[in-house]
Amino acid sequence: MDSIEQKIGYKFRNSLLLAEALTHPSLAYETQRPHFDNQRLEFLGDAVLQLVLTEHLYQQFPQFTEGHLTKLRSRLVSRDALDAFAKRISLGEFLLMGKGEEASGGRNRPSTLADAFESLIGAVYLDGGLEAAQNFILRHCRIELEEILQAPEEVNPKGQLQEILQAITPTSPLYHIVTEEGPDHCKVFQSRVAWEGLDLGSGIGNSKKAAEIEAARMALQNEKWVPLATGKESVNNREQR
Known about the structure:
Layout: H1 2-8, H2 15-21, H3 26-31, H4 39-60, H5 66-77, H6 79-88, H7 99-103, H8 110-140, H9 142-150, H10 157-166, E1 174-181, E2 188-195, E3 198-205, H11 208-222, H12 226-240
Antiparallel strand pairs: 1-2, 2-3
Helix pairs in contact: 2-8, 4-5, 4-8, 6-8, 10-11
């Protein structure tokens, strides 16, 4: 258990709680023997996660309405977000599961990883209390929380860029991660966005998503597609005549 504790930055006093958090229900089903699993801890961890993030967002954004805060929280507790948190600490490697579940890709299944991450939160809460769970959550959600601090409004540069470009041609912009530097807990990514052979812009972020968003934001500022769009409009006008 030492390696997973090093990964998550928390030392359990009760190692049975950690074992329970890492045990997938398929293990008991396959062995046909009574066995604890992480479903109850998942139920608890979900509630603790919601509480901690709700309070954090409430304190960070006193000017926002209930509806806006709810939207921000949903970005942090979605299955995709939880899956990303779990993969960042390689949680799938440590799960105890049945052979059939593992053979079918269970260690990398987003729903399994999301559930396991919530179970881990529940285990930390029972082992160390609310403060320990709060520290755990805010540490492992740090990158996404920083993204929200940088862009708390419901803006979507990638969506805006795609809408503008597809009004010119059906081709969608393509994003590529060109560099990835730094240790696992503090990586920096650089992304470039291209369309119709044009290099529209680049961006840097602490996650691939953040880098792509920044690249889209720079593309919106650069507007390198304008000459191409103008040329197409001229052709269309001639054809209409």
